Predict the structure.
Amino acid sequence: MGLIWAVIRQRCPRCRKGPVSQGLMTTREQCPVCGLVYRRDYGYFVGAMYAAYFFSFASTLYWLPMLFLGVNPWLVVALPTIQLIIQVPITFRYARVIWLHLDHRFDPEALPHAAGTEMLG
Ligand SMILES: [Zn+2]
């Protein structure tokens, strides 16, 4: 499975077979296929916020030209806000998957900070 297809299907960055998510808003602790620990350290997914910011910004950018086309400015604020609220589960999941793949690409062999330590959050 190619990299892009693995990201689209939200699969493990190492084996590209195991699902990253479980349910709507839950990230698995580790890959059910290869055993890769997804959360390497406390606060590991803070980096996923950058992907979420970018994804949210890019997905609502098309509203900006509406300001210059005479559309009510309140609509230009309200409708993208509603869109962002609706797409929260998609943004959340893909931001983490993109972060996992980026991190695994640049640091594939990093081990969890403290083996045996239960990861929270
Ligand atoms: Zn895996």
Remarks:
- Residues 7 and 89 are 15 Å apart (CA to CA).
- Residues 12, 14-15, 18, 31, 33-34, 36 surround zinc ion (CB under 6 Å).
